[in-house]
Design a protein that fits this description.
Elements lengths: L21 H27 L2 H11 E6 L6 E2 L5 E13 L1 H4 L4 H10 L4 H10 L4 E7 L1 H9 L5 E10 L7 H4 L1 E2 L5 E3 H5 L1 H4 L4 E7 L5 E9 L7 E2 L4 H18 L3 E8 L5 E7 L12 H4 L2 H4 L9 H11 L7 E3 L4 E4 L2 E4 L6 E3 H7 L2 H8 L4 H10 L26 H7 L9 H7 L1 H4 L3 E2 L14 E2 L3 H15 L16 E11 L2 E14 L6 E8 L8 H4 L1 H14 L31
Parallel strand pairs: 2-10
Antiparallel strand pairs: 1-8, 2-3, 3-4, 3-5, 6-7, 8-9, 11-12, 11-21, 13-16, 14-15, 17-18, 19-20, 20-21
Amino acid sequence: MSRTPKAVTFNHNPLLQLGLSRWRARLVLLALLVGMAVLAGRSLYLQCFDNEHKAKGKDIYVRVRNVPAARGRITDRDGNMLAASTSVKSIWAIPSDASQLKPEQLRRLAQLLGMNTTELNARLAAGGGFAFLKRHVPPELADEVTALDLPGIHQQDEYRRFYPNGEVMAHMLGYTSIDDRGQAGIELGFERTLAGKMGKRRIVRDLHGRVVEDVEYIDQPSEGGDVALAMDANIQYLAYTALREAMRQHRAKAGSIVVIDVHTGEVLALVNAPTFNPNNRAQLTGAHLRNRVFTDVFEPGSIMKPFVAAMALESGRFTSTTPIDTNSGRMSIGNRVIHDTHAYRTLTVAEIIQKSSNIGAAKIALEFPPEHMWSFYKQLGFGSPLRLGLPGEASGNLRPPQSWKPVEQATMAYGHGVSVTLIQVARAYLAFARDGELLPLSLTRVDVPPRGTRVLSPRVAREVRKMLETVVNTGGTATRAQVASYRVAGKTGTANKIENKRYVNKYVSSFVGLAPVSNPRLVVAVAIDEPSAGQHFGGTVAAPVFAKVVEGALRSLGVAPDVRPTPPQLTAMADGQPSRKPARRDM
């Protein structure tokens, strides 16, 4: 017989009838509300008022990234590109994050970066919170690294300087550091113009360091300004090839050449040898990097004699036909003796320049007080830097006249006891090319020629120019400087070098000239240091370089030929050879 189940009434269960009192329920609710308020307040404080905590939070997710700015371009006078910045990537790491890399990942990364794992690990270990792994890599390589998706490995945009003409223009342009800052030449001298202003951008990263949001620019990057040089790329290449050939032919230690536009004072070409490739400067020495046209001083030798002749003519006490007894090539001053290379007797002032007589120049100089000669040399720019904006420019050495002894004044007349830079001499010869006026030189393009400073009367400047033309014609010391279809003028120099305060049998061979004589357009100065192939006179070593450069440059500039000169002689008499050592004091 079945039984009917007994009904259970839950309302009468004594456990369920036990409840909280009303005040206790309200207390629990109040506690929960207070806790929530405290948490909300704390959260509000940390997010809005606690700057230190906010900064730590932002450091995890929000970063400010530097945005590089392109450096300004350098062009020649016609707008041809000489230096430009190209976009590259740099690979860097957060070492603490990169510690998660597995050995096979490290090997693959090292392989891509052209490193071994030992070197890679060393960089990660020494990097602190940041470490560059590889600077200036191609974008394609950076993309391969990114594709590995490695923790702690990142990349950033940078710029690398590129020089299309390599070593041809290296010393004029200079070069930049790996951070794209100028280190030499125009790059350093015009850093304020060329350097761009780096920008800043705020980004948001995830826990793996990947950029998930590009928020905003804090500072916009600003590209650097361009610099248009006075340099003519065609003339620069002519000068480079001519100097390189002379260096090879005469087995010289070094050489320099500078070309100046007579009308504007612009430096159209500047070459030094040995040179370097600014795109690859590994294992270079100071000898390669030195801009010798500006930094190297030397005793100029006979290229100084035209200034003494000009001083004499300007005084009114001499004319180009004034005779000077050169004592058959030997002259005593105190206990010193100076010599000529040929035993001339009486020479006119013009012939002293043509034959390059040391004694003739010395006798003219000794007719003037030392202060007068010193003042004229200073007017020409000797003893002071030209301040053209390139770093390391030397001033040369022109001692105060109060210390000059007669023999020292005599030797200074033919370029010993005074030191100059090649750019100083080239600029001083503008006085002969511009009818007595000197111009300030310019490395950048000049649209409006500057005003000059008069140092000679037009009459005297033209007379000296005629003397300089005789130097390159038959009977002169530099017939190899002649140029077909153009009249040229100039002066040779051959000076012993000083080592350990004594003159030695090593030479600096030089030639400085102008062309065309009828209406000068160019001044070209050449110096060859220590030619060692058997020739060392300026007329045979430096003058042919002048001829090659002038011929090509005048045609490139479209300068019309003037009176056709006498054909070059096959042989040339020795130029203003260095004075004999007894004439000089030990220094």
